[in-house]
Amino acid sequence: MEGDAHGANPETQIVTPQATGTQQGHPRAAVVDGVFRALSDPTRRAVLERLSASPASVSELAAPYKMALPSFVEHLRVLERNGLVRSRKVGRVRTYQLAPERLKLAEDWLGRQRRMWERRLDRLDAYLLKMKEDSK
Amino acid sequence: MEGDAHGANPETQIVTPQATGTQQGHPRAAVVDGVFRALSDPTRRAVLERLSASPASVSELAAPYKMALPSFVEHLRVLERNGLVRSRKVGRVRTYQLAPERLKLAEDWLGRQRRMWERRLDRLDAYLLKMKEDSK
DNA sequence: ATAATAATTAGGATTTGACCTAAGTATTGC
DNA sequence: GCAATACTTAGGTCAAATCCTAATTATTAT
Questions:
Q1: CB-based contact B49 A110, cutoff 8 Å
Q2: How many CB atoms lie within 10 A of CB A53?
Q3: Which residue of chain A is at minimal alpha-carbon distance from B32?
Q4: What is the SS3 assignment for A57-125?
Q5: Which residues of A touch B43 (CB under 8 A)?
Q6: What residue is closest to D21 (Cα–C1')?
Q7: Predicted TM-score of the model (pTM)
């Protein structure tokens, strides 16, 4: 079986997020995949929203949901595996906090995308304007 | 049990994705789900990038990929079902173009998230500053 | 009319995702 | 020590996602 080295000691163990690849260039596609995938579930987005107010324990985070705890915890694992949150266990309580760096990857992709299509609209605009001028 | 196999979130109401399209305020979670889900595949993101240059036919879009055509076309369907592209068939050629409105939903969510997170940092900052002042 | 092109339909195989219940392990409070 | 608390592990169901090949339909070119 494959996966992150979770097995050794879950205590205070921070799951190693995937490497981002190039620091200043575009991140590896697989990382962006994971971020968008993690954001595609309403429970997970709601958890991120909750965590942007303050860190919280597993049971605090789970409280609003009728979902069984193991199912909910799996959502937390998805968020952590994809680097959107970090967690630390102290005693029997695991506390989660937001890790906003990876959200930036999603924002960046969308920003690039927006710039590209806006540039295209500009070109189209210029073209249409020229057509209009030429037809006078 | 009626069609609710996965609907554990209190807010999740299944609505036809198209129905909730253009709307002020926060869109239905399911629509945002679909947008992020559509963006979580590298092939689909690449198609969107390609389309931000200009509209293109199915075979033009498929050309760079070694994937079988029916598999590729399914990606196009996912994009269209989630409102990220539109298509039109003329003769035997179907042409796709970008539909950027839905991308804005993703941007908006990320923007709100960032604002929340930054507001929190500000509060923390103010708090720490106050501690420092008080300790003088 | 026939052949080539563009896309679609039909029907799998396999994997991943999102839930569940039941039982287990540490930690902490009394 | 014993019970409650806070997760964690194990194992299972069911649906959806992602790929495939083969065959088909519709359109255009020769």
A1: no
A2: 13
A3: A40
A4: EHHHHHCCCCCCHHHHHHHHHHHHHCCCEEEEEECCEEEEEECCHHHHHHHHHHHHHHHHHHHHHHHHH
A5: none
A6: B68
A7: 0.82
Please indicate whether, in this complex, the C-beta atoms of B100 and A114 are within 8 angstroms of each other.
yes
Could you tell me which residue, B133 or A21, shows the higher pLDDT?
B133
HSE-up of residue B12 (Cα within 13 Å, Cβ side): 21
pLDDT-based confidence at residue A8 (cuts at 50, 70, 90): very low
Cβ of residue B71 lies below 7 Å from strand D: yes
Q: How far is the CA of A82 from the C1' of D18 (A)?
A: 21
Which nt has its C1' nearest the CA of A89? Answer: D7
> Coil, helix or strand for B10?
coil
Please say if the pLDDT value at position B19 is more than 50: no
Helical packing angle, B42-51 and A101-134, nearest 10°: 20
CB contact under 8 A, A110 and B106: yes
Residues of A in contact with B96 (CB under 8 A): none
Q: Give the CA distances from residue A51 to residues A60, A67, A85, A123, B61, in Å, rounded to whole numbers and listed in that order.
A: 11, 19, 9, 42, 40
The span from the CA of A25 to the CA of B121, in Å, is: 27
CB A26 within 8 A of CB A36: no
Per the document, the length of chain B is 136
Distance B99 CA to D9 C1' (A): 45
**Which residue type is seen at A52?**
S
Query: Which residues of A fall within a CB distance of 8 Å from B102?
Result: none
CA distance A28 to A41: 22
Residue partners of B92: CB distance under 8 A and separation at least 6: none
